[in-house]
Amino acid sequence: MKILETLRRWFGSSNPAPRAKTASQSAQSQRRGKPRLNARDGMRVLVVDDSATIVAVLRRMLEQNGYIVLEALDAEKGIEVANAELPDLIFLDIVLPGMSGFAALRQFRREGPTRDIPIIMMSGNEQATEQFYAQKIGADDFMKKPFSRSEVFARIEGLLDTTLLPKRLNMRGVDTSEPVPAPTSAS
C-alpha cells in the first residue's frame, strides 16, 4: 500500500492528462475497495492467442482503458508484430498452433528488441506446472483462463514502474534469481 501512496504523491496532480471518471468507473472503484493504478494512456499491448474470442475480450478491456492493442493469432505472427512494433507489454497464450507459447517466449527473450518486454503468459489448461515453466524461462507473470477484468488489470499493475509503464522485474532492480543451495558434504 505504501508503494501506491508514494506513486500517487509523485504523480498526483501533475498527471499529464487525467481522464474524467464515468459513473460506471466511479461505481467500480467503490466496489473495488482500493483505487487501481492504471498504466499510461497509449500503452501498446500485444495479444497473442489463437482464440478470436480471447483476443476480442482483451482488446475491449484494454482499449476501454486507453491502451493501443496489437493482435496475433499465432506465435510466428506475434514475433513478427513484436519485432516491428515493440509493444510495452505482451499477453502470450501457451497453447498455440504451430510454434508453442513457450518456444515464442524463448525467442522473445533471445532477441535484442524484445528481450526486455514484459510478458504475461496465459493458459486455460489446468496444469499448474505450466506456470512454473513459464516463469522459469522468462515470463513475468502468468494468468489462468478464464480471467476477470480485475485480474487482467491487477497483472498489469504488478508490472508497472514509476513511469506507469510495465517493466520486467529484473529491469526494476529486483533480484529475480533463485538462491543457490549450499553444497552438501557426503558422509
Give the strand order, joined by hyphens, for the main sheet: 2-1-3-4-5
Along the chain, the helix and strand elements come as: HHEHEHEHEHEH
Query: How many H/I helices?
Result: 7
The class by helix and strand makeup works out as: alpha/beta
Major beta sheet, specifics?
5 strands, parallel
Radius of gyration: 18 Å
Distance between the termini: 49 Å
Strand content: 5-15%
Gross morphology is globular
Helix content: 25-40%
Which ranges are low-confidence, i.e. pLDDT below 50, for 5 or more consecutive residues? 13-20, 172-187
Q: Mean pLDDT, as a whole number?
A: 79
Kindly state the number of beta strands. Answer: 5
Folded structure, characterized:
By secondary structure, the chain is of the alpha/beta class. Helix content is 38%, strand content 13%. It is built from seven helices and five strands. The protein has helices spanning 2-11, 23-32, 52-64, 75-85, 101-110, 129-136, 149-157, and strands spanning 44-48, 68-72, 89-93, 119-123, 141-144. Strands 2-1-3-4-5 form a five-stranded parallel sheet, with helices on both faces. Helix 6 links the parallel strand 4 (119-123) and strand 5 (141-144). Helix 4 runs parallel beside helix 5. The longest helix has 13 residues, at 52-64. The protein is globular, with a radius of gyration of 18 Å. The relative contact order is 0.13.
